[in-house]
TrEMBL record:
This is AraC family transcriptional regulator. It comes from the Bacteria. InterPro entries: AraC_XylS_family_regulators, Homeodomain-like_sf, HTH_AraC. One of its GO terms (molecular function) is sequence-specific DNA binding.
Length: 179
């Protein structure tokens, strides 16, 4: 649960407090795979966290905004410079994108580009592209229109195995079992 990707949004104490609940839910989910009520149990655990957030909000302990001091300060100018990068990545997500292609779009030297991007966005360009690909993959899977092989192709993976491995690493579940 320490890897839970809501840092800066939900306080670590709330995550720690509910970690045991999620671990128990996951273990039972693994044992109950395919059994009635499995998804309902996992949703109930998530609802417990949401209820806790609402309770804390009512007590004035949770504002529903980023926790102060958890995210680097970013100026609008930094992100404005990167807008062509974001558009390029979105349009070319199915291709292998090199840093040498991205830096000139922002008018920044290749040497300085990665540190500038990380300072502005909070993650490296490679991590950003990975997150975008995994989010897009998740969206395709929710649509239930495409096969894993098609999604791998849409996102520029050489084969379904490589895509499945990346997806499982990100979401801790293979795409074939994601819903």
């Amino acid at each position: 649960m320490s890897d839970f990707q809501l840092s800066g949004i939900i306080g670590a104490d709330l995550i720690r407090e509910n970690a045991d609940l999620f671990v128990k839910a996951f273990e039972q989910s693994e044992q109950r795979s395919g059994k009635p009520g499995n998804r309902l149990y996992l949703k109930a655990c998530l609802m417990a966290v949401i209820a806790k957030i609402i309770e804390l909000h009512g007590q004035g302990q949770y504002s529903g905004a980023f926790l102060s001091g958890t995210l680097p300060r970013r100026s609008g100018r930094d992100l404005d410079v990167l807008q062509p990068i974001f558009r390029y990545i979105d349009a070319h997500l199915h291709e292998s994108i090199k840093m040498s292609e991205l830096a000139p779009l922002a008018g920044i030297s290749e040497k300085y580009f990665i540190s500038y991007f990380k300072k502005a966005v909070g993650i490296t360009p490679g991590q950003y592209m990975y997150q975008i690909k995994m989010n897009r993959a998740r969206d395709y899977l929710y649509q239930k229109k495409y096969t894993v092989q098609q999604i791998a192709g849409f996102l520029g993976y050489p084969d379904p195995f490589t895509f499945s491995k990346a997806f499982k690493k990100y979401y801790n579940v293979p795409p074939s079992k994601f819903d």
